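Propose amino acids for all 346 sites.
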């Protein structure tokens, strides 16, 4: 039985054999350690245990990124990141969202089942508008496309960070609404998926203490190295307690990041040093830098090697796209049948 936790509630996916893991990441900037601990690490862990589909969601990224060269570069960067971090293309499917055009077809069908008022209440939508993005239809409908992403492969388990909870709720609503509206009671098309959110890493803080996010400019990249990495770590905001005074590790951004990387013994040692005093934030930052360098050392090497083998990376995406289209098409045949959308070309 697969167990995850969300909202401190254990979720049990009863039929493990039928678990299909799906998730996506936007190619809208370089991936950061929030993406890694909130989602990617779980993607890598789960992809050898279940049927899994991971997609680089370039249609979603269009809502914020309008630069073709950057879009192409970030898309390949995300593929490199997955492979460097241990994704095995023999075990699961990695592909580019726009290689499966059926996903926009399903999104259109879902639009007709989605109250505009539900989308207008979207936390992520409101947050992006507050950041100055234009309230265009793509941004408003973002969660509907995400639901199509998940359901078109029969996704039942969705590893994501806590910020995606509401989007998974909308996906669950749409799966149920579609099944109730169009399917016979005993033959629903879509499973109702569960989020897979690990409480302890559900919101990774950025260098300014807010949620780490590409759009806040407060990230530490997974593959940042050398001086740029050091600069970012040294910029982490702390309070001004003097070195010799005791400090509360639970209130500090540096310790929040140390907890992600350090083993139990190091965590305990550093926590005690905070509480005793005589251990400054400068010490903590230096230690954090060491942990990051050690944690990603192997992946960095693999990424350097892979970046000289871009033909291989393209092959992985091409093969992944083919597999994903087949799976998506098998769902779409049933969707078209249920909705009465006859096709004459097949
Ligand atoms: P994106 O690219 O914004 O984020 C990718 C994943 O990283 C998680 N994440 C974080 N987790 C913890 N702490 C943080 N500071 C942090 N920042 C980001 C996000 O929760 C996410 O899991 N809407 C999705 C993309 C998407 C998708 C899907 C996901 C499109 N279709 C279908 C799952 C299933 C997103 O937020 O991407």
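Proposal:
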């Amino acid at each position: 039985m697969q167990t995850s936790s969300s909202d401190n509630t254990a979720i049990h996916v009863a039929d493990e054999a039928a678990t299909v893991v799906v998730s996506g990441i936007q190619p809208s900037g370089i991936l950061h350690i929030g993406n890694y601990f909130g989602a990617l690490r779980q993607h890598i862990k789960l992809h050898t245990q279940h049927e899994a589909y991971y997609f680089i969601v370039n249609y979603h990224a269009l809502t914020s990124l309008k630069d073709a060269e950057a879009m192409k570069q970030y898309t390949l960067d995300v593929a490199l990141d997955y492979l460097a971090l241990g994704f095995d293309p023999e075990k699961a499917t990695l592909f580019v969202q726009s290689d499966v055009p059926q996903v926009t077809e399903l999104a259109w069908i879902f639009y007709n089942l989605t109250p505009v008022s539900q989308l207008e209440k979207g936390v992520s939508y409101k947050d992006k508008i507050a950041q100055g993005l234009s309230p265009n239809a793509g941004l408003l409908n973002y969660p509907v496309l995400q639901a199509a992403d998940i359901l078109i492969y029969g996704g039942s388990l969705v590893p994501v960070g806590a910020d995606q909870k509401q989007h998974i709720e909308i996906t669950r609503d749409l799966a149920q609404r579609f099944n109730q509206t169009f399917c016979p009671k005993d033959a629903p098309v879509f499973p109702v998926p569960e989020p897979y959110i690990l409480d302890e890493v559900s919101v990774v803080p950025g260098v300014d203490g807010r949620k780490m996010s590409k759009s806040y400019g407060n990230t530490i990249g997974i593959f940042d190295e050398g001086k740029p990495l050091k600069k970012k770590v040294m910029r982490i905001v702390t309070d001004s307690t003097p070195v010799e005074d005791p400090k509360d590790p639970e209130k500090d951004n540096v310790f929040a990041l140390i907890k992600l990387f350090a083993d139990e013994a190091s965590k305990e040692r550093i926590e005690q040093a905070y509480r005793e005093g005589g251990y400054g934030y400068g010490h903590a930052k230096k230690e954090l830098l060491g942990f990051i360098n050690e944690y990603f050392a192997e992946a960095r090497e693999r990424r350097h090697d892979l970046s000289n083998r871009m033909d291989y990376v393209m092959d992985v995406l091409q093969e992944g796209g083919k597999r994903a289209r087949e799976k998506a098409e098998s769902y779409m045949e049933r969707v078209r049948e249920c909705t009465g959308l006859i096709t004459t070309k097949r």
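The chain has two domains: 4-203+309-339, 224-295. The pocket of tryptophanyl-5'AMP is lined by residues 22-26, 34-35, 38-39, 57, 60, 146, 149-150, 158, 160-161, 163-164, 167, 202-204, 211-213 (CB under 6 Å).
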